[in-house]
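Researcher: I'd like a candidate sequence for this fold, 170 residues long. If you have to choose between options at a position, lean toward the conservative one.
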């Protein structure tokens, strides 16, 4: 049995992951609008990953007989000022999501909910990768974004990203 507190936090995380998917779709649409289709592709796949994360939280709650409550998803509220700032906002958002995962872990830890801690281990690792990827994008843009030829090549590189399902199976 999951505690009421852990169940509530896991339910909230479903919403946060769907919001992340929504936010990254907004990023993706912005880049497609700008003619940076590779960046658009990268964030479209990122949105698919966030949807997968939401589904994993749903599956975990179902596997443990917990009630799932779907709340309304906020509209994306990050200003899309320029290509570089969007990447910086992406990094900030991942750092925020890491803090949310850590908060759930903290609640599970204090209740000796080892099952939820083990489930969350994958997300703790995943957030490390997400922050690294987002940080790399910012750095690459700082290095290459100012030069049209370099930006074209970077956009091409990001266009090569392909979707793959999450490695966590529940
Ligand atoms: Mg996520």
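Model: Candidate sequence:
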């Amino acid at each position: 049995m999951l505690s009421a507190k852990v169940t509530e936090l896991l339910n909230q995380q479903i919403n946060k992951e769907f919001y992340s998917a929504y936010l990254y779709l907004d990023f993706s649409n912005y880049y497609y609008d700008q003619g940076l289709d590779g960046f658009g592709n990268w964030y479209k796949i990122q949105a698919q990953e966030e949807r997968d994360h939401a589904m994993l939280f749903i599956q975990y709650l179902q596997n443990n007989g917990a009630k799932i409550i779907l709340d309304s998803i906020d509209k994306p509220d990050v200003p899309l000022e320029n290509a570089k700032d969007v990447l910086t906002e992406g990094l900030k958002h991942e750092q925020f999501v890491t803090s949310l995962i850590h908060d759930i872990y903290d609640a599970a830890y204090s209740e000796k909910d080892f099952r939820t801690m083990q489930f969350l281990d994958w997300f703790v690792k995943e957030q490390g990768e997400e922050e690294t990827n987002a940080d790399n994008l910012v750095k690459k843009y700082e290095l290459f974004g100012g030069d049209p030829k370099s930006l074209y090549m970077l956009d091409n590189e990001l266009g090569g990203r392909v979707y793959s399902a999450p490695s966590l199976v529940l």
